[in-house]
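Thread: Newbie trying to understand structure tokens

Hi all, I'm a second-year student working on a class project, and my supervisor (Dr. K.) asked me to get a predicted structure for one chain before our next meeting. I've only ever worked with sequences, so writing a 3D structure as a token string is new to me. If someone could post the tokens and maybe explain what I'm looking at, I'd be very grateful. Here's the chain:
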Amino acid sequence: MRYYIIIALQAYCLYHIYKNRKPYYWYFLVFFIPVIGPIFYFIINIYNRRDAEKIQSEITSIINPTRKIRDLEKKLKFSDSYSNRIELADAYVDNGDMPNAIVNYKYTLKDIDQSDLYARQRLVLCYFQLEDYVGVIEYAESIKEKPEFKGSKQQFCYGLALKELDKVEEAEVQLKQIDRPYSNYAERLELAKFYIENNRASEGKELLNEISVESQHMTKPNRRIYRTTIVEVERLLKSL
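---
Reply by user tm_fold:
Sure, no problem. This is what the structure looks like when written as tokens:
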């Protein structure tokens, strides 16, 4: 059991480094010094008495992800509130259980006293994970007039769903909204592929070149994060 706790702490610290964009040397400390490194990082960067209970819960979720769901199901049974059901739906997503997540997000839409934006945003992503493009389009179109939609992950999924359903012109309108310099690298790669697939290789190549140039100015942590995307960009450029 002690071994699993150490592994969970190490995994949590690595996730915290990535999420909070900590300096690159923390990766080496935590990964290559398995016990002392994570403990040192935890004390310096994470530990706070007010957050201790939350962190303990997150570490437990890493060791036993289904336990969090069982606890949230009990919590929902005791109090069937909007926030409890959203929390359970989010936990299902974290555990890769999109069908159950969808059921719970949809249930929250019945509560007319609450904003339904978050649930609809999550439904777009869930349906996309299931490759249910009709579902993606249904929920994306219910929020596409919201200011939060423009440039979002949901708009990107909407564009790809339209493409999959052969609505090419509509797809391009949505995908082009994600084309922003020095950001959205994976999404822009998909836009470049979209151009190439639709006999617009020159536009695709131009976008790939832009990403390639931008990648040369990335910090080392970002190059590591986007390594797969950069490799694919360079591969496609060589093939054109």
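A couple of things are worth pointing out once you decode it. Residues 55 and 86 are 20 Å apart (CA to CA). DSSP finds 15 helices and no strands in the chain. Feel free to ask follow-ups in this thread.
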